[in-house]
Design brief:
Blueprint lengths: L3 E2 L6 E7 L1 E9 L5 E7 L1 H12 L5 H15 L5 E4 L10 H13 L2 E2 L4 E3 L12 H8 L3 E3 L8 E9 L3 H12 L4 E9 L5
Parallel strand pairs: 2-10, 5-6, 5-9, 9-10
Antiparallel strand pairs: 1-2, 3-4, 7-8
Length: 192
C-alpha cells in the first residue's frame, strides 16, 4: 500500500503503510482474552518484531523506507523528533529507527527537547479518541529553545487516532517551532 495522508495539527503528514492486513479470530485463551491470527504488512511485521520481540534486524529497513519517503516528500526538515515513548524500555525501538533515519538523511536527531510531564497509560488500550485526547492534555513539554524556528519531522511508529502526535505538535507549535511534519511508520486499518 502506498503512504497515506494523516491529518492533524501538523502542517503535513503521512503514514508509510498499514500495520496489519487483517486478523482472524481464533477464540479465547484460558483467561478469557481474545486470540487472533494477525497478518502484518512488511513494515508492520518489522515494527512488531522490533517493539515486542527485541529483533532489531529490521530497523535498517524501516529507516531506509522512512528516509526514502522523506527525500521524495521534499519538505526539508531540519531535525527529527521521535514521539516520547509511553513505556520505558532498555532500548527504545522508535528512537533506534529515528536515529538511523536521521543518519541516512544527514539530519539532527533530538530526543531531549520534548519530554513527557507525567505518566500516561498505553493508549492502545484506550478505545475512545476523546478519552485519549483528555489523557494526553498537557502530557508533554518542550525543554530549552533548540527547536525554536526549526522545521521538525515528528516521528512515530504507529498512527491510530493521532492523539499523541497532535498533543506533541500542539506543544511544539505553542513553544516556537516553525513547521511540524508528521511521519508514522505504520497506521491502523481503522482510525478511532
Amino acid at each position: 500500500m502506498p503512504p497515506s495522508k494523516i491529518t492533524g495539527l501538523w502542517d503535513d503528514g503521512y503514514a508509510l503503510d498499514l500495520h496489519t492486513r487483517g486478523a482472524g479470530f481464533l477464540g479465547y485463551d484460558q483467561y478469557g482474552h481474545a486470540l487472533f491470527d494477525t497478518h502484518y504488512t512488511e513494515l508492520g511485521d518489522l515494527l512488531y518484531k522490533l517493539k515486542y520481540g527485541g529483533d532489531s534486524s529490521g530497523a535498517d529497513r524501516l529507516a531506509a523506507v522512512a528516509a526514502e519517503f522523506v527525500r521524495g516528500w521534499k519538505v526539508n526538515p531540519e531535525v527529527i523528533v521521535p514521539v516520547p515513548p509511553s513505556r520505558v524500555r532498555v532500548a527504545q525501538p522508535l528512537v533506534e529507527v529515528a536515529q538511523r533515519s536521521a543518519t541516512e538523511l544527514n539530519l539532527t536527531l533530538d530526543t531531549e527537547s520534548v519530554k513527557k510531564t507525567r505518566d500516561t497509560p498505553q493508549l492502545k488500550s484506550v478505545i475512545d479518541s476523546a478519552e485519549r485526547r483528555k489523557l494526553l492534555n498537557g502530557a508533554f513539554s518542550l525543554q530549552g529553545t533548540a527547536l525554536n524556528g526549526r522545521r521538525v519531522l515528528l516521528f512515530d511508529d504507529l498512527f491510530r487516532s493521532g492523539a499523541t502526535m497532535n498533543a506533541v505538535t500542539k506543544t511544539l507549535k505553542e513553544s516556537g517551532v516553525a513547521v511540524v511534519f508528521a511521519l508514522a511508520l505504520t497506521r491502523t486499518r481503522s482510525r478511532s
